[in-house]
Amino acid sequence: MTVTFPLTEKRDAEALLNHLTLYKLTYPGNCVVSLKAHVAQVSSSHTTALGTARTAW
């Protein structure tokens, strides 16, 4: 499953990685993170954790 996370000045890539850790998603452990200018695409086979992390973001 791949989910897009919007990035802002307050919610940057570092904040996203910290947020994903709260849901037991770690890079490069069990998810892949691809950064673009204003979004990050996160892929993982742990769909429930990823969906919950996206909702809470």
Automatic annotation (TrEMBL):
It comes from the Bacteria. This is Uncharacterized protein. It comes from Rhizobium phaseoli. The lineage of its organism: Bacteria, Pseudomonadati, Pseudomonadota, Alphaproteobacteria, Hyphomicrobiales.
